Amino acid sequence: xxxxxPTRDRLRQGRLTLVLAxxxxxxxxxxxxxxxxxxxxxxxxxxxxxxxxxxxVRQGHTELRKDGIPIQTVPxxxxxxxxxxxxxxxxxxxxxERLLNQQATADRGxxxxxxxxxxxxxxxxxxxxxxxxxxxxxxxNIHRQEAWLASLRTYAGNIERTGKPVPEEFxxxxxxxxxxxxxxxxxxxxxxxxxxxxxxxxxxxxxxxRQLQASGRLAALSANKRHTDLHRAIPCTSDADCDRLWDKxxxxxxxxxxxxxxxxxxxDLFVAAPRPPGRAAGTVAIGxxxxxxxxxxxxxxxxxxQGPGATLFAExxxxxxxxxxxGCWRPExxxxxxxxxxxxx
Length: 345
Known about the structure:
By secondary structure, the protein is an alpha+beta fold. The chain folds into 4 domains: about 1-25; about 30-75, no CATH class; about 115-215, Helix Hairpins (Orthogonal Bundle), CATH 1.10.287; about 225-345, TATA-Binding Protein, CATH 3.30.310. It has 7 helices and 9 strands. A 5-stranded antiparallel beta sheet has the order 5-9-8-7-6, with helices on both faces. Strands 2-1-3-4 form a 4-stranded antiparallel beta sheet, with no helix packed on it. Helix 3 packs antiparallel against helix 4 (about 170-215).
């Protein structure tokens, strides 16, 4: 007797389920096998087998065809130390990029804010003049208060010579005037420090503006460069230690005969490129040719996530089109980075 259609469907589904169950059971019962596996154990011994022992799975392996041609390679599992090193490198590169982008933004702002060097210098003079005016006004106030304080003391002395007590309001007024003079003197000291810092920043801006104006465009500090595997990370433990190492690192790089500086007036970023013919070592790059190098060297000071320390991170970077070519792995850049550890001793 023939089965009705629903019954036939149930029979076909049952047979399919049975086949799948048998296949799954076979897969679980028998280790996955390739034609051949090749791996190296912890002692450096090379092994070939159609099954990888569980103890060697984390070592990585190469799967081979029957004729010995590699099919695919599985790298060794990353150790916790390697994972931490990768995470640190990612953070250092991210901060390096942030500093470069920040510098590029400052460069654009400098060029867009001032149509000429004369305009920048006029702005600098105005800022310094405004501070000097505030300092002078405060000094004049101090002179008036000192004169008033002297008159109060003279009056108090005259009263004391008569044998009478000095009224409390005169004593309180004298103390208030003394405090006001001290506050004004502190204000002058703070503004003078602000004035000195402003002069340093304005000189830095002027030098940077001249460099950018001479090049005719922004220096290629960030957008088109790619990271490479040539880098150095040098930790420091305190502000004083980091300042010392930073100064030594910059002095070392400035002394390299094959480099020309693209950026050296930042407290946490230094950029150099291969020196073009005829350019003196360590000089600041002025002119378009120096700013279009296929490769450069970036030194960044990256603060620790916790604590007062930091890491000095130096890396060779290349234009994407130059990766793997001689234009990227310039010997003067390679020597400078490889010799950095020795240069800091």
